[in-house]
Design brief:
Shape: elongated
Distance between the termini: 60 Å
Radius of gyration: 23 Å
Structural class: alpha/beta
Largest sheet: 3 strands, mixed
Length: 256
């Protein structure tokens, strides 16, 4: 909207399915769709290649889709030159911004004059410099709802335990904020806070103590919190996903 109305940009296109959308071909042709601030008479409302973004802020999710991997800098550079693109706005987290950095180096090597703008959007809220990323508030809201459901279930059974795992490979912001917002959480485990699983002051002992006293327990854990356990060995294959992220450990066992 700002590009069209504020800066008078004539044409704005969205690239579907992440970086691979720059060069990928589908049954509908390429992955480019024209983004318009309003549906004017000259636009065909049945044309799937034209997307009205006027009320986009009222909807969740993404109209452009998403993907893991698909980054090929040379193919992207070829597509950018072929289509005459002069500005790229990439919305995403650390993987997206790593891709932008690689693109900037390729563009310099090939003398391609294109402005690259990174827009931080990750529910983990784990990007430096900025206070809050797009999507974080929604993640905390949904996490709080899941916690309320887990609390109801835990209270419905004798010695019931409600366990909620939320996203956060290296940062526990979602777990921490959702736990504080719900006020029903008894244990919150995050990657930044080391803990013991076993022993008199360990996690398991505290859970048993809590169940004896109150007959229920609600636990919230960030997905990457296992690495913060002092007394557990995590066996990992160091598998990397398509976006360059290290996958969680595949097995854990107590240290001797």
């Amino acid at each position: 909207m700002m590009l069209c109305h504020g800066y008078k940009v004539q044409e704005v296109y969205g690239v579907k399915y992440g970086f691979e959308g720059f060069w990928k071909q589908t049954s509908d042709g390429d992955c480019y769709v024209r983004l318009v601030p309003e549906m004017r008479r000259e636009f065909d409302r049945k044309d799937k290649k034209i997307v009205n973004v006027q009320d986009l802020h009222t909807r969740g999710g993404t109209i452009l889709g998403t993907s893991r991997g698909g980054f090929d800098g040379e193919k992207i550079a070829d597509a950018v030159q072929a289509k005459g693109i002069n500005q790229i706005y990439a919305i995403g987290g650390d993987g997206t911004h790593r891709g932008l950095l690689k693109l900037s180096k390729i563009f310099r090597q090939r003398n391609i004059e294109v402005s690259l703008i990174g827009i931080p959007k990750t529910i983990d809220n784990d990007l430096a410099i900025i206070d809050k990323t797009f999507g974080f508030d929604t993640a905390v809201e949904i996490g709080s709802w899941a916690i309320r459901c887990a609390d109801v279930e835990a209270n419905s059974a004798e010695y019931g335990v409600g366990l909620v795992k939320v996203m956060g490979r290296h940062a526990g912001h979602i777990a921490m904020h959702a736990a504080l917002a719900s006020r029903d959480v008894n244990i919150c485990i995050i990657p930044e806070s080391p803990f013991d699983v076993y022993g008199p002051k360990g996690l398991l002992e505290y859970i048993v103590k809590r169940l004896k006293q109150r007959h229920h327990c609600v636990i919230v854990i960030a997905e990457g919190a296992g690495g913060a356990a002092h007394d557990v060995n995590l066996e990992s294959t160091k598998t990397i996903d398509a976006s360059g992220n290290v996958l969680p450990p595949v097995r854990a066992r107590a240290k001797k």
